[in-house]
Amino acid sequence: MTDHGTDPIKDMAAVREATDRLLVTARGLDDAALREPSRLEGWSRGHVLAHVARNADALLNVLTAARTATHVPMYASAESRTADIERDAPRPLDVHLADLAGSAERFNDEAASLHSEMWQRTVELRNGVTDLAARVPFRRLIEVELHHVDLGVGCTVDDLPASFVDRDLEYVAGERFAGRADVPALVIRTDEGRSWRTGRGGVVAGGAGTGGADEAGVTEEATVVGGSPVALLGWLTGRSDGTGLDTGGSPLPVLPPLG
Prior knowledge:
Elements lengths: L7 H20 L3 H5 L9 H24 L9 H11 L4 H20 L3 H4 L2 E3 L5 E3 L3 H15 L11 H15 L9 E5 L4 E4 L4 E2 L16 E7 L1 H8 L23
Parallel strand pairs: 3-6, 5-6
Antiparallel strand pairs: 1-2, 3-4
Helix pairs in contact: 1-5, 1-7, 3-4, 3-5, 3-7, 8-9
């Protein structure tokens, strides 16, 4: 992430607020509702809640690595990550609620134990990705906010805080999709005038190239996709179908999962 204005203390406050909102929604469910499909293919609502809790523990491991200046894996393995979610998904609501609250408290306590120097240490996340410890709270905020939407019970991308939407849009368009060979060449443009070139590169019709080329070595024309920040973020993250976005008459490109 290249968010140089990151404030982990402020971000932790946002994480706590987002977690409280998620817990309010979760308390309105029952055991039957937990077994129903979420908005994520193949996952029930129980899977979503289990993942959010286990992600808190995984990111706690990352912060522990920052505090101790030692290597602490985020997850023991990809297989154990999947197995833990599958194990926890069928639990009754009261167990899910206690786990969500308890894992969030553990993550908060670990974050509170870091001082300024520790926040500036480089940490390792999944799949060899590295980042500053100071950006871990925002990564946790992304998990809580987007998976709240994935429950499919009331909260949509339109309900996300505007400050979060603006920041996550910059992250997804400016970093997560930038240079990815499986993402078509795009120019993401907000109604307010912010824009990012992302995906595998290309040229804008009538404009300069983005420095990329397809596998055949032929520069690809980038599709300009415009709209409100929340509509763009919803589409880029797979939380909406892109209805209402402006492509100048071109078909809306198909995106891979955020991954």
